[in-house]
Design a protein that fits this description.
The radius of gyration is 13 Å and the shape is globular. It is built from six helices and no strands. It is 60% helix and 0% strand. The chain has 106 residues and is an all-alpha fold.
């Protein structure tokens, strides 16, 4: 099972007119990491996929409908999305960082 298709994500980014550096800066990762994700030489975590979707304005249902998925990863992504939404409504910023703290993993 692979929820991350490198070429697909590069297309999402390019179609949104977002540079790899912009995405890296938004996510707090290096531009090299973004390039490795897009080249398929490194796979992002489910957490990072959810964050990329958020920063590129891609709904979670779009990811799930565009990629093959099994129940476990499907549930993990939906749980992360639920957590993200709840935290945004309370003490979290849009970057999934607690106020004054480190990012939390789903």
């Amino acid at each position: 099972m692979n929820i991350y298709e490198p070429g697909q994500w590069k297309n999402y980014r390019v179609n949104q007119d977002v540079t790899a550096k912009d995405l890296a800066d938004r996510m707090g990762v290096t531009v090299t990491t973004v390039h490795r994700w897009e080249a398929g030489t490194r796979n992002p975590s489910v957490y990072d996929v959810v964050r990329m979707a958020h920063h590129l304005g891609i709904p979670i249902w779009k990811i799930l409908s565009d990629t093959a998925n099994d129940g476990e990863n499907h549930q993990a992504i939906l749980a992360c999305e639920d957590i993200r939404a709840a935290k945004q409504e309370s003490m979290m910023t849009a970057d999934l960082h607690p106020v004054g703290g480190q990012p939390e993993r789903c």
